[in-house]
């Protein structure tokens, strides 16, 4: 225990020395006429005390009239326990010396449980005066606890979601677009996007929805399943639009499909589609800017196609290749030759 205490004391002394070295470095970088007044050292404090104790109209042989004028404009004397203490004229708070900076700031910082810069500076200014902001910022750089802080509560490492093949797990989620509705006509106003992502291949589908009712969601999912086949697992969050009775009817149409719900208020369990939501909305916004269009529903198809035909970081290949086993037809060498040869028909 003794060795631990000695190590802690040595570390504190080192931090204090480094703190004052950095403060001195900052002060010395200032214009020479500001150095003495930026931080008040002991000898300057004694001069201020003498200037404030001088009777009005009397001069001092050791202090200049300019210095005395500055002292009387910025400071005043206050008796605390019968002792004359120099206080800031504006805040009426005691002025602390340069030599006491580390101790004063350290106590204030510990009293408020090592919070950030703004709250620490507010705590210091509520009790003391003439401690510049840059001094508090330098102190934080030398606070060992703040530099190596670790949260008491450790995050639980989630188990990875494993998919064995294409369409073994389909993750679905809704993207709220009510702040930017797509008014196609008086009868058709899209306010939601149903985003579906195959967890294995990262292949995506996106459908505009007028509302997030169960019937609207099921209609789009049936279209997808009748073309690509139902997934082995349908994975969604705990929103009521996904657990309604109509959704359960999908199991009647596709009895081999199981339904998996993510944990409530835990987007990590839907990590793949949650990330895909951000990618889709970001790309859709850029499409709207590029095309100068106001109808984002028209951009879903080209944007999703672009996402499906670019390399995914998780799989190191495009979702299209994993889903169909080949590159998009327009990228094949055959069609490039056809285009270069200006062949317009088979004859």
Automatic annotation (TrEMBL):
Residues 156-327 form the Integrase catalytic domain. GO terms for molecular function: nucleic acid binding. InterPro entries: Integrase_cat-core (IPR001584), Retrovirus_Pol_polyprotein (IPR050951), RNaseH-like_sf (IPR012337), RNaseH_sf (IPR036397). GO terms for biological process: DNA integration. PROSITE patterns: INTEGRASE (PS50994). It holds the Pfam family rve. This is Integrase catalytic domain-containing protein.
